[in-house]
Amino acid sequence: MGKNTVAVVDDDPVTLEIIETMLNDTKLEVKIFVNAQSALESLKSCAPELVILDYNMPGLTGQSLMIKVSEALVFGHATFVLLSSEEFDDTKKMMLATCGLSAVLKKPLSKTRLLELIESVFPRDVIYK
């Protein structure tokens, strides 16, 4: 992993498949992780530019994963986006921002919103075939 890579972490296989399908027409390398623990182990040795995390996962939550990555300084810089069906108030968003959160993607997912977020991280010529 590394340059032009998106890591997606979610315990729901349907959500993972939806995101993978949405990004299928891009040139980005998409790495899928079924839980935060397996993602953390892999993220220790690589540097995705974008990490999309489910907020509510069993064991290590998306928020906990952001904190662990930030504390360990696993890689220099990554953009973190949380997936959630929950609404976050401004206080919660500010608290999550201190952990490295850049945005929240509301479930059900919108391909348009997902691509907008990706375009805010990667240059267009890197994204599209």
Q: What's a concise summary of this model?
A:
This protein is 40% helix and 21% strand. It has six helices and five strands; from the N terminus they run E-H-E-H-E-H-E-H-E-H-H.
Task: Set out the fold topology.
Blueprint lengths: L4 E5 L3 H10 L6 E5 L2 H8 L6 E5 L7 H11 L6 E6 L5 H8 L3 E6 L4 H11 L2 H4 L2
Strands across the major sheet, in which order?
2-1-3-4-5
Count of separate DSSP helical elements: 6
Unreliable stretches covering 5 or more consecutive residues: none
Q: Please state the overall shape, judged from the principal axes of the Cα atoms.
A: globular
- The total beta strand count reads 5
If you compute it from the alpha carbons, what radius of gyration comes out, rounded to the nearest whole angstrom? 13 Å
How much of the sequence lies in strands comes to 15-25%
Helix proportion of residues, in percent?
A: 40-55%
Could you name the CATH topology? Rossmann fold
- The CATH architecture category equals 3-Layer(aba) Sandwich
Biggest sheet layout: 5 strands, parallel
Q: Give the CATH level 1 class.
A: Alpha Beta
Distance linking N and C termini: 19 Å
What is the CATH homology-level superfamily?
Response regulator
Helix and strand succession?
EHEHEHEHEHH
Mean pLDDT, nearest integer? 88
Structural class: alpha/beta
Number of domains: 1
Model description:
It is a single chain. This protein has six helices and five strands; from the N terminus they run E-H-E-H-E-H-E-H-E-H-H. It has helices at 13-22, 36-43, 62-72, 90-97, 111-121, 124-127, and strands at residues 5-9, 29-33, 50-54, 79-84, 101-106. The longest helix has 11 residues, at 62-72. Helix 2 (36-43) packs parallel to helix 3. It is globular. The model has no long low-confidence stretch (mean pLDDT 88). It has 129 residues and is an alpha/beta fold. The protein has a five-stranded parallel beta sheet with strand order 2-1-3-4-5, sandwiched between helices. It has one domain: 3-Layer(aba) Sandwich (Rossmann fold), CATH 3.40.50.
